[in-house]
Specification:
The protein is of the alpha+beta class and about 500 residues long. The chain folds into four domains: about 40-150, Immunoglobulin-like; about 160-250, Immunoglobulins (Immunoglobulin-like, Sandwich); about 250-315; about 320-490, SPRY domain (Jelly Rolls), CATH 2.60.120.920. Helix content is about 20%, strand content about 35%. The chain has two helices and 32 strands. The strands form seven sheets. Strands 19, 20, 21, 23, 28, 29, 30 and 32 form an eight-stranded mixed β-sheet that branches. The chain has a six-stranded mixed β-sheet with strand order 2-11-10-5-6-7, with no helix packed on it.
Length: about 500
């Protein structure tokens, strides 16, 4: 019996020794878990994109770790004003730069493999420059920089024969719509370059280059000549060819010289007679000038008075309309009140029928009421934060896919983003200088005059007027757009 007890003690001691060894190993030999460290990698050379098309800015992590639970931030020069932000598993649009709204997309299919590429839609010239890629996982973060170059190829070269010069013919080559500044070459059929007579570059208001260059062609040049314009980023060329026959070059005979002499004598006589007539007419012109100045002055006064009368007539509309929002046109992410007088943008998309009249991309909604004649007005209370737009639109305007909210697309509206206001004119938006943000805005429509006006009811000041809106006989409806944080509410106004 004593032998059995001794064996049991030896077994217990062995178990305790094994347990202590395991605890010691776990405590001192297994490293603590920390935030995963990584590097942010991407293209070493600048990325090239074409105006009007889409581009993808590549970026991946090394080692290949998942970025689904990380913060992914693409920004330009300011960290807080971002191009695109992905955080807590969702895209964040609160402080997205206005010029990138609804134009960016993070390719989430690649996040599990560490790919955080960004797609930019409808590339513009202002998109060029540096982009910062910032990724954070717990307390660890890493940043890298990528450069985007933007380019576009212009029109085919247009060659024209202008005039005679220096014993030859001056030929001009023109082309427009290039970025960056293109290279221009004149070449013969063997590829030899011709010296340029002139070369002029200019930029339009959109930043695109127009080039005009000219050369002198002599009569001994009988082969084809080409004007070639090259995009230096895309390494693309556009070329036009010209051939001028000998019959175009000047040939002066003795008879031609005699005729030129006679014509010169006649010209001198004509000039002398013209000078005499001009002197006589100059006396009468002074008297007529006085009367013309007085007439212009009166015309200007009449125009000013007419403009003031039109404004006063339009600023006090005849009929105030009690509007309601048309739920059948509202984007599925917009939330309307029960009385259809209030709209804001929700966080998720509602399950609504995709009828032909519903917006599916832009977060817009139309009013139920429509107008094809008369003068009408209604009041809208707007948030001073977020992004919103309000105005009128043709009933036939596009509702599916991307739209451009401009008069050409059938929309006359004003726009607010971060306390800045614009009229949605084209080709460029018109900035509006408001001393105070309006709390209640009156939208006025005069169908016959083709005018749409916006008036700050609280401060009693006009905001903006579209003077020549072309409704083309169509039904016009109130139009609203709401982006996160903002809201719009239809309110009654007191007409004076």
């Amino acid at each position: 019996m004593k032998v059995k007890i001794s064996s049991f003690c030896h077994i217990s001691q062995a178990k305790f020794l094994l347990l202590g060894f395991i605890i010691f190993f776990l405590t001192f030999h297994i490293p603590k878990l920390e935030s995963v460290e990584f590097r942010v990698l991407g293209p070493e050379r600048p990325v090239t994109a074409t105006v009007g098309k889409e581009t993808v800015l590549l970026c991946h992590l090394s080692p290949m770790v998942s970025a689904q639970n990380m913060e992914v931030r693409w920004f330009r020069s300011e960290f807080s004003n971002y191009v695109h932000l992905y955080r807590a598993g969702q895209d964040q649009y609160w402080k997205q730069m206005p010029e990138y709204q609804e134009r960016t997309e993070l390719l989430k299919d690649g996040l599990p493999g560490g790919n955080v590429a960004l797609r930019i839609l409808n590339v513009t010239l202002s998109d060029k420059g540096q982009y910062h890629r910032f990724l954070q996982n717990g307390s660890f973060y890493e940043e890298a920089i990528l450069e985007l170059k933007v380019t576009v190829s212009g029109s085919n070269p247009l060659i024209s024969v202008e005039d005679y010069q220096d014993g030859g013919i001056r030929v001009v080559c023109q082309s427009a719509g290039w970025y960056p500044k293109p290279e221009v070459l004149w070449r013969d059929f063997r590829g030899q370059h011709f010296p340029l007579l002139t070369e002029t570059y200019s930029q339009n208001k959109n930043g695109l280059f127009q080039v005009e260059t000219s050369i002198i062609i002599q009569q001994n040049i009988k082969q084809n000549l080409s004007c070639c314009i090259k995009n230096t980023l895309l390494h693309q060329e556009k070329e036009s060819i010209i051939r001028i026959s000998d019959s175009f070059f000047p040939k002066i005979s003795p008879e031609t010289l005699a005729l030129i002499g006679v014509l010169m004598v006649c010209l001198v006589f004509l000039i002398g007679f013209t000078v005499f007539i001009l002197r006589e007419n100059g006396k009468h012109a002074k008297e007529l000038g006085k009367y013309d100045a007085v007439t212009r002055e009166r015309d200007a006064e009449i125009k000013m008075q007419a403009a003031e009368l039109r404004w006063r007539r339009f600023a006090v509309p005849i009929e105030e309309v009690s509007l309601t929002l048309d739920a059948d046109t509202a984007h599925p992410q917009l939330i309307l009140s029960e009385d259809c007088k209030y709209v804001r943008r929700g966080d998720t998309q509602q399950d609504l029928p995709d009828n032909p009249g519903r917006y599916d991309t832009y977060h817009c909604v139309l009013g139920c009421e429509g107008f094809s004649s008369g003068r009408h007005c209604w009041g809208v209370k707007a948030a001073d934060a977020g992004v919103w737009a309000m105005g009128v639109a043709r009933d036939s305007m596009k509702r599916k896919g991307w739209i451009s909210p401009t008069p050409e697309e059938g929309i006359w509206a004003i726009f607010q983003c971060g306390g800045e206001y614009w009229a949605l004119t084209s080709p460029d938006h018109t900035p509006l200088a408001l001393s105070q943000p309006p709390e209640l805005i009156r939208v006025s429509l005069d169908y016959e005059l083709g005018q749409v006006a916006f008036f700050d009811v609280g401060n009693q000041v006009p905001i903006f007027t579209f003077q020549t809106a072309f409704f083309t006989g169509e039904r016009i409806r109130p139009w609203f757009r709401v982006v996160p944080i903002a809201y719009l509410e239809l309110c009654p106004i007191a007409l004076e």
